[in-house]
């Protein structure tokens, strides 16, 4: 499904969704820098990050924190999540970018990311353990089989503001 989105102005509220390894964080950082819009990772909405370890926010804390973000003037939200608690972000976004990167590309990126994190060339919000590494493959498959269809079933109603991107050239062309 390719959707052509025509915006009259640069969007101030962007939601980027895609599987593990799809390029969400990289794209979000580039857009945040280029457009001077604050970036929020959904994983950091779920988790409070501490040197001693992460603590999951309660549902109430998560909702309050997330609502503060999406009711601000500008934001870029990125993450794999498409559960009900993020629905207001899709509703309020001026642009939803769905990264539909090829499954094998995502698999390669998961392996590459893990190696770079283990040798200290890439940082992460989590400790790169073998357990998380193997879970990423599971999450990647789950997104392909469940997350993607779920997104279109729940949020296809916003098709006029969904930009489906399969490679980086498409997004660069869109914003240039």
Structure description:
- With 176 residues, this protein is α/β, with parallel strands linked by helices.
- The radius of gyration is 16 Å and the shape is globular.
- It has helices at residues 24-35, 42-46, 59-70, 87-92, 103-118, 130-155, 168-175, and strands spanning 13-18, 39-41, 47-48, 55-56, 75-79, 95-99, 162-165.
- The model has no long low-confidence stretch (mean pLDDT 91).
- It is built from seven helices and seven strands.
- Helix 5 (103-118) packs antiparallel against helix 6.
- Helix content is 48%, strand content 15%.
- Strands 2-5-1-6-7 form a five-stranded parallel sheet. The protein has a two-stranded antiparallel sheet with strand order 3-4.
Map the helices and strands:
Layout: E1 13-18, H1 24-35, E2 39-41, H2 42-46, E3 47-48, E4 55-56, H3 59-70, E5 75-79, H4 87-92, E6 95-99, H5 103-118, H6 130-155, E7 162-165, H7 168-175
Helix pairs in contact: 5-6
What is the overall number of helices? 7
Number of strands: 7
Radius of gyration: 16 Å
- Alpha carbon gap, first and last residue: 23 Å
Spatial sequence of strands, sheet with the most strands: 2-5-1-6-7
Helix and strand pattern: EHEHEEHEHEHHEH
Low-confidence parts: none
Which percent band covers the strand fraction? 15-25%
SS class:
alpha/beta
Shape: globular
Summarize the biggest pleated sheet: 5 strands, parallel
Mean pLDDT across all residues, rounded? Answer: 91
């Amino acid at each position: 499904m390719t959707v052509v989105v025509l915006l009259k102005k640069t969007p101030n509220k962007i939601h980027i969704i895609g599987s593990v390894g799809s390029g969400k964080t990289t794209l979000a950082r580039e857009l945040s820098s280029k457009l001077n819009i604050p970036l929020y990772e959904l994983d950091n909405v779920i988790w409070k990050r501490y040197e001693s370890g992460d603590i999951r926010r309660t549902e109430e804390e998560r909702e309050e924190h997330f609502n503060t973000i999406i009711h601000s003037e500008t934001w870029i939200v990125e993450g794999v999540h498409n559960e009900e608690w993020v629905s207001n972000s899709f509703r309020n976004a001026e642009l939803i970018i769905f990264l539909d990167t090829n499954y094998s590309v995502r698999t390669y990126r998961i392996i590459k990311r893990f190696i770079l994190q283990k040798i200290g060339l890439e940082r992460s919000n989590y400790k790169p353990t073998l357990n998380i590494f193997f879970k990423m493959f599971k999450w990647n498959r789950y997104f392909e089989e469940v997350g993607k269809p779920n997104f279109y079933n729940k949020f296809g109603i916003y098709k006029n503001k969904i930009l489906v991107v399969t490679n980086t050239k498409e997004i660069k062309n869109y914003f240039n």
